[in-house]
């Protein structure tokens, strides 16, 4: 197995480590946390032993492990990934991997120069259910006439924000907001299924902090539009859809996809059989490890192109809406 260091001791890092245990792909050996107590509690919850703890990031990257998984606040991704690559570590970084396309370009160039891997962890595109969506879209591509993707989920941190606190996910300092949290899933949906759009426009609903609480994103392609609805300040139970003229592919969600149906012109709805892992990060852990072990550069280049396109669209979208991150001023 590939030795793994992680940055962050939150629920998503725990989920990723458990996925690597199930798939027997990566072996956790090192943990970085700002406090030793948090790291110890995290390791204890995972029932792991002999894990090296670091509270100093420079010291952490000098340790002997192969790959780092980064799940810190968005604005920290770039500097941490850059430092990892400079120290010879392969990088798996949660989406979005950077705050700006300039940052992404720097990381991509550095990874290439060092002969290392840089993965953006968009876990849902690796799941079997998404592969089934790709099959359906490809089969009916000649009739493709657009899509609507919806992902709106009331944030567990929004109450704190309304109470006058300053959660990272709702600040420009940490590159927060709906687009860069939930929207990235739906942009991945569009890019993987339809490619790069010709035009991007985002109409955002702003919070006082300067980030978007929700919004409507339009991706214009040559023959159709993709409409995206996202939000962190409200809940929506709207399904997502891909249109093929008279027929429609129904997704129960634009980000966390659990069920697929096919609806015909007569309103007959047919279930599309597929599978869903109990741990949604199983498939990406398996695929990243496979690419690294087999040196499958064709698959790697494809994922890198997706990530590059998605990060460019995210920046174009927030620029069109007038969303400015602190990271923009650091260019």
Structural summary, described in words:
The chain is α/β, with parallel strands linked by helices. Helices cover 37% and strands 23% of the residues. It has 2 domains: 2-119 and 283-305, NAD(P)-binding Rossmann-like Domain (Rossmann fold, 3-Layer(aba) Sandwich); 127-276, Dihydrodipicolinate Reductase, domain 2 (2-Layer Sandwich), CATH 3.30.360. The longest helix is centred in the C-terminal third of the chain and has 25 residues, at 297-321. It is globular and about 60 Å long. One of its GO terms (molecular function) is nucleotide binding. Residues 3-119 form the Gfo/Idh/MocA-like oxidoreductase N-terminal domain.
Which SSEs are present, and which pair or pack?
Layout: E1 2-7, H1 11-23, E2 26-32, H2 36-45, E3 52-54, H3 57-61, E4 67-70, H4 77-86, E5 90-94, H5 101-114, E6 118-121, H6 128-139, E7 146-152, H7 158-162, H8 179-194, E8 199-206, E9 212-220, E10 225-231, E11 240-244, E12 247-251, E13 260-263, E14 269-271, H9 282-294, H10 297-321
Parallel strand pairs: 1-2, 1-4, 2-3, 4-5, 5-6, 7-10
Antiparallel strand pairs: 7-11, 8-9, 9-10, 11-12, 12-13, 13-14
Helix pairs in contact: 1-9, 4-5, 5-10, 8-10
GO molecular function, one term: nucleotide binding
Domain Gfo/Idh/MocA-like oxidoreductase N-terminal: 3-119
Organism: Companilactobacillus nantensis DSM 16982
């Amino acid at each position: 197995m590939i030795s793994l260091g992680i940055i962050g001791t939150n629920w998503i890092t725990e989920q990723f480590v458990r996925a690597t245990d199930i798939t027997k792909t990566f072996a956790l050996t090192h943990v970085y946390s700002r406090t030793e107590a948090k790291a110890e509690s995290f390791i204890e919850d995972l029932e792991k032993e002999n894990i090296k703890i670091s509270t100093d990031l420079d010291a952490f990257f000098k340790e002997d492990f192969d790959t780092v998984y980064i799940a810190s606040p968005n604005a920290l991704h770039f500097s941490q990934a850059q430092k990892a690559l400079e120290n010879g570590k392969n990088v798996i970084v949660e989406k979005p991997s950077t705050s700006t396309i300039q940052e992404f370009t720097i990381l991509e160039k550095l990874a290439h120069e060092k002969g290392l891997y840089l993965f953006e962890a968009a876990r849902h595109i690796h799941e079997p259910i998404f592969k089934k969506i790709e099959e359906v879209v490809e089969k009916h591509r000649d009739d493709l006439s657009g899509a609507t993707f919806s992902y709106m989920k009331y944030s567990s941190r929004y109450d704190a924000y309304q109470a006058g606190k300053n959660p990272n996910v709702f600040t420009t300092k940490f590159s927060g907001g709906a687009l860069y949290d939930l929207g990235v899933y739906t942009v991945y949906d569009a890019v993987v299924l339809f490619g790069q759009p010709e035009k991007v426009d985002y109409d955002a609903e702003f919070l006082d902090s300067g980030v978007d609480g929700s919004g409507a994103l339009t991706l214009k392609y040559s023959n159709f539009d993709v409409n995206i609805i996202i939000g962190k300040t409200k809940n929506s139970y709207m399904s997502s859809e891909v249109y093929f003229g008279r027929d429609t592919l129904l997704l129960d969600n634009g980000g966390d996809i659990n069920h697929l149906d096919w609806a015909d012109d007569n309103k007959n709805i047919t279930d599309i059989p597929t599978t869903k892992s109990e741990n949604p990060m199983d498939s990406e852990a398996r695929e990243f490890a496979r690419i690294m072990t087999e040196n499958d550069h064709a698959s790697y280049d494809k994922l890198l192109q997706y990530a590059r396109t998605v990060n460019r669209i995210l920046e174009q979208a927030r620029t069109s809406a007038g969303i400015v991150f602190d990271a923009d001023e650091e260019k």
